Amino acid sequence: MSARSKQLQPEQLQSVCDMLLTGGVHGATMLARDMVASGHTQRSRYLNVLSDAARQLGTMWDHDQTTFLGVHVAAIRIENIIRDTARRITNGGGANGRSAIFACVPGEEHTMGAKMAAELHRSKGWNIQLVIEPTQEELLSILLTSPIEILGLSIGSSTSMSKLYTLVRALMAIRPTLKILVSGSLVATDHRPFARLGVDAYAATLGKAERKLEQMAREIARAN
To answer: 78 and 122 share a domain?
Structure first.
């Protein structure tokens, strides 16, 4: 794997997926070491390797090239790599003044994207409050009392759309100035529902979400 390339070549990406699917714990450990040895930064690992691998695994599942169990196990291995990386990172604790709440849409089972985004931004000095698997009431309660002005919502399944709509409408009523970004693989499928929803931004990839969050933070800084 070359750190110079923004994206893995198809055969490299397939090799990563195969290692996650069949390499066991040892394979995942070797993958993590290989990424470091190849010169991948944490950002590069997340944006150019792990997020692409997660997307490819989903495509393989859609085309019956792997089983649900295989994808589930591979996702756990990716999360373990993320968690291990996070333990090694000493972040700035929000020293740069940028803060956000990252959460999965209530009922959403795909939590890996939110976890990856949280660790990526913490490594850049953001203060990130990560909310995983909340109920609608729990998330609204957190957002109603928090001074944080940016919310990043992760969605990966069309079955979560109705809850996303309900949540966003409620937030627009109780916190109209809260900036909301929605990201996830579902955005890549069709961005129009998210545009109609009226959120501040939406992004299909972690890299695009990263850039839009930075823009939101600059807008808030200028306004304050």
So the answer is: no
